[in-house]
Structure of Lysine 2,3-aminomutase:
Amino acid sequence: MTTVSGDVAPSAVPGRRLADLVRARGAGADLAHEVDVVSRVLPFKVSAHALENLIDWDAAPDDPMYRLLFPHRDMLLPADFALVERSLGDPAALRAAVAEVRARLNPHPGDQLSRNVPKEQPGLQHKYAETVLVFPKQGQTCHSYCAYCFRWAQFIGDAELKLAVDGPDAMADYLRAHPEVTDVLITGGDPLIMKTDLLARYVDAALAVDHIRTIRIGTKALSFHPARVAVGPDAADLLRLAERVVAAGRHLAFMLHFSHPREMEPELTRTAIRLLGGTGAQLRSQAPVVRHVNDDPAIWSRMWTDQVNAGIHPYYMFVERDTGAQHYFGLPLERAHEVYRDAVSRVSGLARTARGPVMSAAPGKVVVDGPVKLPHGTAFALRFLQARDPSLVGRPFYAKWDPAAQWWDDLVPLDEHDRSFFEENT
Ligand code: SF4
């Protein structure tokens, strides 16, 4: 599935379009063919801004922004690539092959549909007592798609895999019934894909609930489509909306997704950051650490330093989830921790607000504090930053050292004490 989005409204185009686009920029027939095959399985979408300003076409296909946004044959396992490839030209066989391969890619990691979604309102996630995630129905797409996206299943048109709340009233009804909730995170997709007047309906509905003190908006628009924030009447309306939330005495935070420091370089992005920060909203940054894009401490230290200079607080370095092309983007936890530790050691104290590497796993957000030598052997030291059971937060626990482990499910408890801890919480 492939889309190219322009500066105004994203528009769907046939899968072959992305291959044509790569060919037009000098790629050989083999690469264009691989783009065509992989994009049958995983969703791809590229904004005009990303095409023109983020990708170094002279360095493609090894350019990190190309790897972030375009298909690569290794995103499918060799047998799966071959299965899809030989089905091209036979629509029924292709449909079956694509469905089979997608099902193998763990479309909903972390039990998101079964464990966190309130029965009464399926477009919300209430994983931690104080925080509710809101998935507006109209915000379930993005200006471009990150090829590592753990929400890729939402973009392939399978209604069963979508999380979407019906509207602001349904959200507000749930929030009113849950006085323990203080934080609302409006997410997607990307909520800034919505027009400001629609986003404002969700924001105003949250503002009308007294016990909601913090509104967060997760977005990668400043990277993929900075015009959304920097120019035009809808952008100005967004800035006025942010000012209004701040004036109401609520904490407003834009959770900005930057994968690579290059995304912050375009003038329009710098303008967008300055304007958004000027509203009084807090700006925080987060991204996963992934192979081929940002698995280098120098990238993170530069990115965090640039962010502090621009008024953005580094927040999370995530671990790539166990879904989609994890075999392509994922790193061993050992390496993710090395990247974090090396990067954080190079930056000033103000940039050390970044926490990581963090797995947003089924039982909660688990940070890998690194290897430790214990009487029972070498172990990963782990800690919950967030947990369904708040009493677990901050308690160290251990898993056996495994240099190949990439995710929570790969970890084995170190001893009996940790075994019961894992069993109670997974
Ligand atoms: S911006 Fe977020 S939701 Fe959208 S494709 Fe990237 S990771 Fe996925």
